[in-house]
Design a protein that fits this description.
The structure is a single chain. The protein has nine helices and seven strands, in the order H-E-E-H-H-H-E-E-E-H-H-E-H-E-H-H. By secondary structure, it is an alpha/beta fold. The protein has one domain. The protein has a five-stranded mixed beta sheet. Strands 1-2 form a two-stranded antiparallel ribbon. Strand 6, helix 7 and strand 7 form a beta-alpha-beta unit. About 35% of the residues are buried.
Length: about 290
């Protein structure tokens, strides 16, 4: 079975065990893999600040029309998965449990920061659109100003082709300052990407350019958080990710990667203080 189909089937089984009413992507039509309400797809009710973040992004996550569900109501929504993991910690006085569970070093210290969703950082003023970063944690203290997280669920295993880097990104040398290896890699997948079939490398490169402009080179961490899969597609995805990481790290980009499965297993250390949250993630996503 294709990894994407397998993940969706597991999510449908989880929903049916809970007695959730499901609908298709077009209401009565399409695969019944969408919850009838947004609340049914989330661990906790969407807070006002998080809802405002989603509405400000250009992903249209909360938009449904003519009886059709919003994208975030999909059981396989990467946005819903990211919110289920990170929104719980919004406003927490210490983010160290979730950051250590992400595999990010923190030196055993309390971490204070502001969690935001669907954040956009302009690469250049003449570009009309900026890519959406799923989660950004603005840090109060320390060398790094922010931790940016790109979240993936089934996207890597989709048959949909992802684009490369548009030629317009090479018209301004300044945006590539300190990123010679990254630029070379970007040129190899411009205008079409025939090298990375599972990893959306062009998207990650655009995030690096936006983060560099916003926070400064080497003043942020970028985490690629994805849902792992067995078989050849999962192995190929991991190999592409390893190759990409080596390239951008050679430019001094503090790039990290972790699977959701690893994150949830690490979270088990904090079950005593966060039992309902950890239990929900474990039962749904492991």
């Amino acid at each position: 079975m294709n990894p994407r189909d397998y993940i969706i089937a597991k999510q449908i089984a989880w929903a049916e065990e809970r007695g959730l009413r499901l609908m298709g992507s077009a209401g009565k039509r399409g695969r019944r893999a969408y919850t009838s309400t947004l609340k049914s797809n989330l661990f906790m009710t969407l807070g006002a600040l998080t809802q405002r973040d989603l509405e400000s992004g250009d992903g249209g996550e909360l938009v449904g029309a003519n009886g059709n569900p919003a994208k975030i109501q999909a059981l396989h929504s990467s946005s819903a998965l990211g919110i289920n993991v990170f929104d719980y910690w919004r406003g927490s006085p210490d983010l160290s449990p979730i950051l250590s569970s992400c595999g990010l070093p923190r030196g055993g210290k309390t971490v204070i920061g502001d969690i935001r969703f669907e954040q956009q950082f302009s690469i250049e003023s003449r570009f009309r659109f900026s890519p959406n970063l799923d989660v950004v944690i603005a840090l109060e203290k320390g060398r790094y100003k922010a931790i940016a997280i790109e979240c993936k669920f089934t996207e890597a295993y989709s048959s949909r082709h992802h684009g490369g880097v548009d030629l317009k990104y090479f018209e301004n040398d300044e945006i590539w300052h300190g990123l010679s290896s990254t630029r070379k890699a970007a040129e190899s997948i411009s205008p079409e990407d025939d090298l990375f079939h599972f990893l959306h490398a062009a998207q990650l490169i655009k995030h690096i350019l936006g983060l560099n402009r916003k926070f400064g080179h080497a003043r942020y961490r970028l985490l690629y958080l994805w849902y792992d899969a067995l078989g050849e597609p999962g192995d190929q995805h991991r190999q592409e990710l390893k190759r990409f990481a080596e390239i951008v790290r050679s430019d001094g980009v503090d790039f990290h990667e972790s699977t959701y499965q690893e994150l949830i297993v690490r979270l088990a250390r904090y079950r005593e203080d966060h039992e309902d949250y950890v239990t929900y993630l474990t039962r749904r996503y492991l």
